[in-house]
Amino acid sequence: MNAFPFLFNTFVFMKVLLTGANGGVGTVVCQAALHTEGIELVPCSRQALDVLDSRALAKALLSHKPDYVINAAAFTHVDRAETEVEEAFRLNALCLKGMVDACNQVGAALIHLSTDYVFDGEKKTPYTEEDKENPINMYGASKWAGEQVVLAYNLGTVVRTSWVYSLHSKNFLAAIPRLLRTKDEPLYVENSQKNSPTFALHLVEALLALVKKNVRQGLYHYTNAGGGCTRYEFACHVRDRILEKEPGARLVPVYPMEPVLQDPPGTAPRPLYSVMSPDKIAKQLGLTVPHWQEGIGFII
Ligand SMILES: NC(=O)c1ccc[n+]([C@@H]2O[C@H](COP(=O)([O-])OP(=O)(O)OC[C@H]3O[C@@H](n4cnc5c(N)ncnc54)[C@H](OP(=O)(O)O)[C@@H]3O)[C@@H](O)[C@H]2O)c1
Predict the structure, then answer these.
(1) How far is the CA of 72 from the centre of ligand 1 (A)?
(2) How many domains, in total, are found in the chain?
(3) The pTM is what?
(4) What pLDDT is stored for residue 218 in this prediction?
């Protein structure tokens, strides 16, 4: 399967500075930018550019003078954010003031990533950009605070996404193929939370399309299409796809986990339903958003 199916034909040259370049999304931005005509990427790992350091941010922006900054740096430990509240808010919200100021100094547009966890999960149909935020955990609250800093900037764009996975991810979705092949007992998988899995490369395609189309302000949802699924449903699809490709594969069975009535100690509450609609960004960029099942082919 071609991992880089998108190619932009109209030639526009854009310099993009990327923060959090070694993270799950950042790594895929780096790979995809290599295959995208007209994008010069300046990838910055945490070691190269600490986003908590406003002076370092200003210096980097003055030195590179990018057209865009993509901020993929974040405090992403959902459970730890419940106890490390200050750290989560510092990285997900407070430091964005320095980032916006640095961008403003050189006229750079800022694309910032956020999350479906800004919603409380009470809805039964996909969340749109018009829906009211009401985070139920500290990670969601810190990300929502950050969104407001970015959206107050006249060149600020926020892209909310969810359950991002790729071959490089360290999360459960990406681990399923290996678990199915190596476990010696059935795989029990959580089946209460419904969400939109998002293949990282599809998300990054949309981020780079925002750059190429020179979108400079707004709030967007980007997840894979198809109405979402639970982790259990995702695992079943992964299993089916492996068996289609390799009919003799030895895989453990997958069962739904019993629903838990109370969040286990040390875990953050999570919205039970946080499927988001990618219709607005699809329409604006003329993108066809792939179904969540399409990403699975890349990780099995
Ligand atoms: N993955 C998902 O399922 C998901 C879902 C919804 C939203 N998002 C959002 O998408 C964005 C990217 O997430 P991700 O999955 O790529 O997260 P990730 O894999 O945890 O990567 C975050 C990156 O931020 C870097 N970082 C941490 N502190 C930093 C600092 N002070 N200065 C500079 N960089 C720093 C980390 O550096 P080190 O590598 O050195 O630790 C890491 O590379 C985040 O805004 C996240 O909230 C992700």
Answers:
(1) 5
(2) 1
(3) 0.95
(4) 98
